Amino acid sequence: MRAIVCGAGIAGTALAWHLERAGWDVEMVERAPAFREGGYMIDFYGPGLEAAGRMGLRPRLEEVRHPVHEIGYVDGSGRQTSRLAVKEGFAEVVSLLRGDLARVLAEQVRAPVRYGTTVAAVRQDDGGVEVELTDGTRHEADLLVGADGVHSRVRELVLGPEERFIRYLDHHVAAYVVEDEDLSRLVGPRYRMLTVPHLMAGAYAVGGNRLALLFLRHEPDPAVPADPAASLREHFGQLGWILPEVLGRCPQPPELYYDQVTQVEAPRWSSGRVVLLGDACQAVSLFAGHGASLAVAAAWVLAGELRTAASGDLSPALDRYAARMRPVVGDVQSFGRRFLPWMAPSSRLRITARDWLLRLASLPGADRLFMNSLSPGGHRLIT
Asked: Which Gene3D superfamilies does the protein's record reference (predicted)?
């Protein structure tokens, strides 16, 4: 059996890991010009971490994790307004850079990646699928996997235009990494956030004198600005704390990640011998906090169903995969929509209420309840 996986991120490489060990021939293509380093900080836990453990990847994840000892908010002068200490017992939340998780997975995959390339056309019949790539080459396979993100080209080709599937959540998000020894030491192994109405900026030291930065802004217009770095400086540059300094060193894409905050709601996850995976069909939004976990879990589920499929007809296996994953994804998407307004509150009153909630969560016993509330579903996916 042969698969073409479009998208060499977390979901695509996790599936390639499984397919290779099941004896499949895997070819991978990725529209980015090279492997994407860094990115934003993620919390990897739940079914994805369970799957990674069974894949034998937990020791490697421990090497690249950046433990969070404290979550807290500061004001424009850097003064702490609320905090929650993260106890050592929360070892089942692995905090790391998105790019580091992708690399851990990619290290275990034999298939080379054809970078700077994506799918241009798809033709399929009962016997297989023919894929034309943007480099002009044609390839035949038993299965085409669209693991190419929220703006999936594969989804567009087989299911229709992007606007049919995207739910815009009225926010823009940005992230990048700077190297600065003094700022890295100042922030330390604590996730620090500054919020004013409709704006949130966060920072966390990730080793090697690096500082990971994250920005969230309420914006009714989904259009991404022509100069995203200038837009960040315009909206966040006067807020104080460390922001004027780090924004003065803000790069342009691709080093700067800038996008809409969106969710994907696709009525179908497959068509014939083409199947979607990861954010292409199940994007929960960055602020639902569960996307990477669900991507790795979905790869586990899809691979498991494919192992039981007859070579002549993959459709029943693809349908079972979607039926198992869809309810979990729906729950996490709903959680993300409820949680997002607390990340960039709309008023100072709401900011004050959030600070009090965080203080209450610091009380004995309440901290575990608070952390558990951030793990909305998928605990029985990995069987």
From this structure: D-Amino Acid Oxidase, subunit A, domain 2, FAD/NAD(P)-binding domain
Q: Whole-angstrom Cα distance, residue 35 to residue 326?
A: 29
Question: Sheet holding 190-196: strands in order across?
Answer: 80-85, 70-74, 190-196, 199-205, 210-218, 166-179, 257-264
Measured torsion, CA atoms of residues 358, 360, 364, 367, in degrees rounded to the nearest 10: -30
CA atoms within 13 A on the CB side of 185: 3
Q: State how beta strands 257-264 and 80-85 pair.
A: unpaired
In 38-92, the DSSP E strands lie at 41-44, 70-74, 80-85
pLDDT digits (tens, 9 = 90+) for 62-104: 999 888 788 888 999 999 888 777 765 555 788 888 999 999 9
Matching residue, tokens 């575990």: 368
Paired strand residues for 97: 41
Q: Which residue(s) pair with 257 in the sheet?
A: 175
* pLDDT for the residue numbered 39: 74
HEC profile for 223-254?
Answer: CCCCCHHHHHHHHHCCCCCCHHHHHCCCCCCC
**Residue 319, both tokens:** 């349908």
* DSSP 8-state assignment for residue 313: B
Other Cβ atoms closer than 10 A to 221: 10
> Distance between CA atoms of 383 and 381, rounded to whole angstroms?
6
Burial class (CB in 10 A: 0-12, 13-18, 19+), 363: exposed
> What is the pTM (predicted TM-score) of this model?
0.89
Q: Are 19 and 3 in contact (CB under 8 A)?
A: yes
Pairing of β 257-264 and β 166-179: antiparallel
Rounded Cα distance, 107 and 144, in Å = 22
